[in-house]
Each structure stands twice: as C-alpha cells, then as structure tokens.
Amino acid sequence: MVFWVTTGDRERYCWKSRVEDIACLSYHVKKIQIFHYDSSNTAFQLVKFLLRNSKVLESMEIMRLSPDKKNRKKLIALPRASSKVVICITDPRYRFHEDDSSCTEDD
C-alpha cells in the first residue's frame, strides 16, 4: 500500500500497513527481489514494510547500487513476520544464486 504525502512543494512515498492483512502479501508471497536498492529512506521503508507484512516469505534478495555496511546492518536487523525468511544483500556485479552461502539470515 502506497500513500503519497505532500509537504510544501515536495511529494514523497510513505509505506504504511493497514489494520487488515493484505492477503496476497501475507499468505502467498514467498520470494521478493528488489533491484537497484539505493539506500534511500523510501527504499528502506519499503523493505521494512514488506518484511513486517510477508508472513510466508522465505527469501528476500536486495541488489544494491553501492556497498553500504551501515545500511546493510540496519536491513538485517529489521523485524520480520516470517521466521523462515533469509535476506540476501548482493552486489549488482554478481548474479544471485539460490545456493550462495553468502545469502544467510545473519549475513
């Protein structure tokens, strides 16, 4: 769910969860891939929203635009609705492979 918030002349995205479940996200989405993650607050809030509302999520791959260790730690520490989810933060120069040992929950 996307909400537009206007402050002065600027518009920005805000990700907010509704009280009721979003059935598709809550009960069907098992894999999410995010390409060109730019470490902006909007991108971070999107990942936070998806992790909090994806109850059956098994894997989330985040392909970032540039290395950022501080942001990486913040992403890994986010609360998750699914206890099974593995977050894989990759560099866009490398292809994602499901068996990649670097894609672990505590990476």
Automatic annotation (TrEMBL):
Domain FBD: 23-90
Superkingdom, natural source: Eukaryota
Official protein name in the record: FBD domain-containing protein
